[in-house]
Design brief:
The protein is mainly β. It has one domain. The strands form 2 sheets. Strands 1, 2, 3, 4, 5, 6 and 9 form a 7-stranded antiparallel β-sheet that branches. Strands 7-8 form a two-stranded antiparallel ribbon. The chain is elongated. The termini are close together.
């Protein structure tokens, strides 16, 4: 069984036991979090929500991390202008513990 969840403006296809990095959640490591499901599917049937189903996907927060550093470099030729900035996105590592169908 799999589900499609939406969090942080992105959609993810998940199964029980999957680990994934999502946009930062305010929960601490070790706590449970419930995520809304857009679609639940198995080998025999698919349930689609309008826009969400009433079911939830439960996940355990493993850690709060940061992504890789990205360099943002702006430059204008012949103008003497250049600007270099760095950015690291805050992420939450979660493990899917259950899908309520």
């Amino acid at each position: 069984m799999y589900a499609i969840i939406q969090t942080g403006g992105k959609q993810y296809r998940v199964q029980v036991g999957d680990q994934l990095e999502i946009e930062k959640l305010t929960t601490e490591a070790g706590q449970e979090v419930a995520l809304d499901t857009l679609l639940v599917g198995s080998e025999t049937e698919i349930k689609v929500g309008q826009p969400t189903l009433g079911t939830k996907v439960t996940a355990q927060v493993v850690a709060q991390t940061q992504g890789e550093k990205l360099i943002v470099y702006k430059y204008k030729k012949r103008k003497g202008f250049d600007k270099k900035r760095g950015h690291r996105q805050s992420l939450t590592l979660i493990k899917i513990t259950g899908i309520a169908a």
